[in-house]
Amino acid sequence: MNKWKMREIVVMSVLSVVFAVVYLAFLPVGKLLVGFFGPIGYDLIFGIWFIVSIIAAYIIRKPGAAFLSETIAAIIEVMLGNAVGPMLIISGMIQGLGAEAVFAVTRYRMYNVWVLMAAGMGSAVFSFVWGYFLSGYAALASPYVAAMFIARLISGAVIAGLLGKAISDALAKTGVLYNFELGKEHRRNKHGAA
Amino acid sequence: MNLQELNPSMKAITIVLAVFLLAFVFDPITPLLFSSGVVILTFLFGRVSWKIWSLYFVPFLIIAFGFFWTTLIFADTGSQAGTIVDLGFLTFSHSDFQVAISLALRVLGFALLSLLFILTTNKTEFLLSLMQQLKLSPKIAYGVLAGYRFLPMMMTEWKAIRMAHRIRGVRRGKGISGRVQEMKRYVIPLLASAIRKAERTAIAMESKGFTGSKERTFYRNMKVTPKDWVFLGVMLSLYGVSVYCSVRWGYFQWYDGQL
């Protein structure tokens, strides 16, 4: 934690706050989908709930960014008062760990689109294992569970990985990330091209 | 005793523990009894308003129902033997029905436990307690508190961006790609200004001497009192009684990757 600059921590918290609101806004969407499709409804859009890990890690590029941002987002969700409660903090930590594991494998050096998608899938795997235990998915038929898993993997790769990267890159273009790793990379690329 | 007076960290740990314990059991009776106890505790000691509670609870009823019917249809029980449960237009084997109702009640049990926590906990106290009892780094905790205070500002900002677009005649997006473009026009400026503000806040915090060291003192001290242990004890006994009744009535079943 000592290697982190205060600005990185506050920016990460703010990102987590913004996405905590987004996460809460997507809960009713998920509930609606669950009402129609059963438990698989959540998995279709599950990637949205991993997105802050990807964005924070991609922008800040320090060990712990994926884990901490997701954990903070979960704490904020609890503070804002959602009904999943303190359990959600543990779910957030587990999702964050999934993404963090992927970044750790690359030793926090590679942040290309494939790594980001893999990180989204990492969160999907971790959160699915957790959900399997907690929600009693085992009571469902195995093809259905497999479909849920695949839906969540794709959702993690596309919504968290690709959309997360797109949002971060668009932010870097505005110049506000001047002091962050992603902003530096964008500047280097610009100068390289010119 | 009042649930509001409990230490937030201890309360959170108790709730999480209860969720864990409940997750190990898979029968209809244990969660039913346990949840009823939780609801009674919430209203007896929580000073929670019925209206707010219901507002949070209704969505979970819908989820539980979603779980219920998909489990009925997709349940993996293998054996079709057993009594038939007749729902008028559909029939199911008795074991399928029991699995479905167990799963639904379990989801409701988790939700009720969470409601007890959320509706009786002060946010700032929760964070202070995370720092003081669970040794969350002050750097993160105050970073989060600062970020949390940004929310109302961002709401204002969102309105300002919307009005700025309108007054310049930017049309609302049509179709899916139009909607995506519209979202992008809102989200990126909103995030960009939030990041700028966050950087300024960080500089302000450091210039006022915030080091983030763990040896800081607090204006508000959060303490763990005997009340917290009483609450833990009450929840554990409630669980014990629920399991005991379930065993006595012959419903009890462990959760071991059922069926």
UniProtKB/TrEMBL annotation, chain A:
Annotated InterPro entries: ABC_thiamin-permease_prd
Organism: Thalassobacillus cyri
Protein keywords: Membrane, Transmembrane, Transmembrane helix
Protein name: Energy-coupling factor transport system substrate-specific component
Parts of the chain that traverse the membrane: 9-28, 40-60, 72-94, 114-133, 145-167
From TrEMBL, chain B:
Membrane topology: Multi-pass membrane protein
Pfam families linked to this entry: CbiQ
Coiled coil: none
Transmembrane regions listed in the UniProt entry: 12-45, 57-76, 97-120, 229-251
Annotated compartments: Membrane
InterPro entries assigned: ABC/ECF_trnsptr_transmembrane
Domain of life: Bacteria
GO annotations of cellular component type: plasma membrane
Keyword Transmembrane belongs to the record: yes
Keywords recorded for this protein, A-Z: Membrane, Transmembrane, Transmembrane helix
Entries under PANTHER family matching the protein: PROTEIN ABCI12, CHLOROPLASTIC
Protein name: Energy-coupling factor transport system permease protein
Source organism of this protein record: Thalassobacillus cyri
